[in-house]
Design a protein that fits this description.
Blueprint (H helix, E strand, L loop, with lengths): L1 E5 L6 H12 L2 E4 H9 L3 H7 L1 H22 L3 E4 L8 H10 L1 E6 L2 H8 L14 H12 L4 E4 L5 H12 L1
Parallel strand pairs: 1-3, 1-4, 2-3, 4-5
């Protein structure tokens, strides 16, 4: 089984993913970490070079992870990047081959969590959180499971997801 977590940057995908992997015994993979390791560059470096190329790397990485999971026979909790679902190929893969979970987080909470992280999150420099969120909502809306994260710890969110998927 593959459980894919989506949501805006700062929604807790990585933290919740690690917690959920602990509960389920699945392997945890953070897509951004996977891409960064494979490319030998940070995500900000990759995005500054070419967002289009970065999005292609995302799709390639998702394909790799899904293929490895199937061939090697292990279950995965996959934390996508905040904009990954803007790619139709990734949409198709995660909808058809995983349980897609949207970590829904309010704008006020996101702004508080992201305050001061602009240098590590280059897309925040281009538009306000609300504008970027609006652009991505259609992708997040593809999820079959929606969990609200406001006021909850990653462990609480992971427990809620685990209760739904087990």
């Amino acid at each position: 089984m593959i459980v894919t977590l989506t949501g805006f940057m700062g929604s807790g995908k990585s933290s919740t993913g690690r917690e959920l992997a602990g509960l389920t015994g699945y392997r945890f993979t953070d897509l951004d970490e996977y891409i960064s390791h494979k490319a030998g560059k940070t995500i900000p470096q990759l995005l500054s070079e070419s967002e289009e190329r970065f999005r292609a790397l995302e799709a390639e990485a998702v394909r790799d992870i899904f293929i490895m999971s199937r061939i090697e026979g292990f279950d995965v909790v996959l934390a996508l990047g905040g904009g990954s679902l803007m790619n139709p190929e990734i949409q198709t893969l995660v909808q058809s081959r995983s349980t897609l979970v949207y970590l829904r987080t309010g704008i006020e909470t996101l702004v508080c969590r992201l305050e001061g992280s602009e240098k590590d999150r280059p897309l925040l420099k281009k538009c306000a959180v609300a504008d970027l969120m609006e652009q991505r909502l259609s992708g997040y809306g593809l999820a079959s499971v929606i969990v609200d994260t406001d006021g909850k710890s990653p462990a609480q969110v992971a427990g809620e997801i685990y209760g739904i998927i087990k």
